[in-house]
Amino acid sequence: MAQNELESANQMNLAGRECLEKGDFEGALVNFSKALELLPDNQVDAKARLYNNKGRILVRLKRYDDALACFRNGVEIYDKVGNQIALAWQLENIGSVYRELEEWNTALEYYSKSLAIFEAGNDKLGIADQYSNIGYAHFRQGGLGSALQFFEKAKALYDELGEEKKSQFSEQNVQILKREISKLILKKGSL
Question: What is 104-191's CATH number?
């Protein structure tokens, strides 16, 4: 029986992915939800991935409370099985929901938790992404100097990792922040 449920869950997951590729977010949600119901309890990694998939779709649909619930389910599973890196990515996802809600302090809390885990696991891409996320949150809160520092640290890691697009994005943010800081210094000097 469990094998049939697993096969059905895999079929629902594939159907969800097909819907997602076509831009049918509601159809993808329905199929991912059915897959979650059908998955045997011992398929914890698959369940966590499905919660992640659902959460990402719900963010795109601006159903933030539901997205948070999905990501928190993923956090619970990854914490229970001890998959720290996957746990850190889920914490980042939660932070990003709060970023969408412009709840900057809460976003920073989750990005910082994620960063600590990535640092402990020496996951340089995760570290760089969190530096970038934290930099953006500081920028939105008006902390230009700290935002600049985080974007510079992100850029250095992206360069080291060969992540050209992310490095270019960080460099753009660094240049914008330097211009804004210069404007503030000039403005204060003219007062």
Answer: 1.25.40.10
